[in-house]
Amino acid sequence: MHRTVMKYIYRLVYIIMPAAIVMAFLYAPPAEGLGESSRLLYVHVPLAWVSVLAFSVSGILSLLFLFTGNGERTERVHAARNSAAIGLLFTVLATFSGSVWSKLSWGAYWNWDPRQTSIIVLMLVYIAYFSLESALRENSSRPRIVSAYLVFAMVTVPFFVFVVPRMFPSLHPDPIINPDRQVHLESAMKISLMTAIAAFTLLYGYLLDLANRVTAIKEQQKGHLL
Question: Of 14, 146, 162, 186, which one's alpha carbon is 20 to 30 angstroms from that of 195?
Answer without folding.
Answer: 162
